[in-house]
Every structure is written in C-alpha cells, then in structure tokens.
Amino acid sequence: MIGKLKGLIDSYGEDFVILDVGGVGYQVHCSSRTLQHLPSPGEAAVLSIETYVREDQIKLFGFRTDQEREWFRLLQTVQGVGAKVALAVLGTLAPADLANAIALRDKAAVSRTPGVGPKVAERIVTELKDKAPAFANVDPAVVHLAGAVDDHRAPRPVADAISALVNLGYGQPQAAAAIASASRSAGEGAETAQLIRLGLKELAK
C-alpha cells in the first residue's frame, strides 16, 4: 500500500494531480482545497496517500496532512458518505473547521458542501460527534453545551437564551459560545433574560 508520495508536480486535472515520482506519473485525486495549495508544475510536493484497490482499478487519494487523511477515513464511516462526498466536504471545510462544526453540531456548515443535503449533514454531525472534540479547538464547555442543546438536555433558560440569540440572527455555534460564557459568569440558576443580556455583551466584544 502507498502511504506517502514525494515528487514533482507534472500537471493538474479537474480533481487530480499527476505527481512525477522518479519518472513515474501517479494520478492522485485530491480535494479542491488541497489542489489549490499545491505548487506549480515542476515544483516539489509531498502528499499523504490513501490507496483504494478495487477489482478493476487502483485509485490514489492525496492529502496535505495526515490529519486531513484521517478525516477522509472518518467521514466514510458515516452511512451514505463515499470517497467523492468525503473529498467534497474536505474541499469546503479545512480539517479544523470540520472538527469544530461537528463538535458544535453545526449542521449548516457541513451542508454548505456541494452534494451534501441536510440528511447527510445530520448523519455526519451525529455519527462523528464523539470523535470531533479530540480535533476541535473550541472550549470544551461550549462543545458540552452544544451537545446538551442538541439532545434537549440543556436547562430551559440556557436553551431559551440560545434560541433567542439565533432568532436575532446569530449562528448556533456563536450563540452557544456566548451563552456558555454567560452561564459561567452568571452561575447556576440564572434566568433567560440575564443570560441573553450577558450573551449579547459577549458577542459585542
């Protein structure tokens, strides 16, 4: 199995690059994001590789980092997500942004991917929610709160305050982060109105 390729960029296709490794040209399929960050033809490049072997073909998928390759694998554990959809998601969201979106249950961010509808986005967020926090760079308290709201476990004042901020036009992740901070300031037992007021102050910073 091929795990990594180092060579010179020969040429680009619509969704692949030809990488010249010692005179052998490997066709490597990449996300649009990866293709945009690769150098010009004739310059050196290194790609982490995922090798797919089928009865009728061998296909190589290339990634700028091992973490991106790991997300490619993780995405395909979700029902209805194959290699093409996984590459499309990684073309829309960088690995860190994808991790944050899943950790915060931000289905809207995932569904911005061409070809990914609300149902598939919902499955990605739901089925990978336990794996994403390890990669995410958001406050664990916010991740916990986003999960509690999504699972209808959050205290009523907290859920109502987040809902109020969303109705004012803020995104769910923004609203959850602001109210998580407001909850820490106000302490347990804070009323909805107080949380909204403190949340708006957080958002105005």
Automatic annotation (TrEMBL):
Domain I, as annotated region: 1-64
Gene3D superfamilies (alphabetical): 5' to 3' exonuclease, C-terminal subdomain, DNA helicase RuvA subunit, C-terminal domain, Nucleic acid-binding proteins
Single Gene Ontology MF annotation: four-way junction DNA binding
Family: Belongs to the RuvA family.
UniProt-annotated location(s): Cytoplasm
Record's keyword terms, sorted: ATP-binding, Cytoplasm, DNA damage, DNA recombination, DNA repair, DNA-binding, Helicase, Hydrolase, Nucleotide-binding
InterPro entries in the record: DNA_helicase_Holl-junc_RuvA_I, Hlx-hairpin-Hlx_DNA-bd_motif, NA-bd_OB-fold, RuvA, RuvA_2-like, RuvA_C, RuvA_C_sf
Species for this entry: Bradyrhizobium nanningense
Presence of keyword Aminoacyl-tRNA synthetase: no
Function: The RuvA-RuvB-RuvC complex processes Holliday junction (HJ) DNA during genetic recombination and DNA repair, while the RuvA-RuvB complex plays an important role in the rescue of blocked DNA replication forks via replication fork reversal (RFR). RuvA specifically binds to HJ cruciform DNA, conferring on it an open structure. The RuvB hexamer acts as an ATP-dependent pump, pulling dsDNA into and through the RuvAB complex. HJ branch migration allows RuvC to scan DNA until it finds its consensus sequence, where it cleaves and resolves the cruciform DNA.
Record remark on domains: Has three domains with a flexible linker between the domains II and III and assumes an 'L' shape. Domain III is highly mobile and contacts RuvB.
Chief localisation class: cytoplasm
Top-level division of the source organism's lineage: Bacteria
Subunit text: Homotetramer. Forms an RuvA(8)-RuvB(12)-Holliday junction (HJ) complex. HJ DNA is sandwiched between 2 RuvA tetramers; dsDNA enters through RuvA and exits via RuvB. An RuvB hexamer assembles on each DNA strand where it exits the tetramer. Each RuvB hexamer is contacted by two RuvA subunits (via domain III) on 2 adjacent RuvB subunits; this complex drives branch migration. In the full resolvosome a probable DNA-RuvA(4)-RuvB(12)-RuvC(2) complex forms which resolves the HJ.
Pfam families hit by this protein: HHH_5 (PF14520), RuvA_C (PF07499), RuvA_N (PF01330)
GO cellular component: cytoplasm; Holliday junction helicase complex; Holliday junction resolvase complex
GO BP annotations listed: DNA recombination; DNA repair
Region of interest (Domain III), ranges: 156-205
Residue ranges of domain Helix-hairpin-helix DNA-binding motif class in the record: 73-92, 108-127
Name by which UniProt lists this protein: Holliday junction branch migration complex subunit RuvA
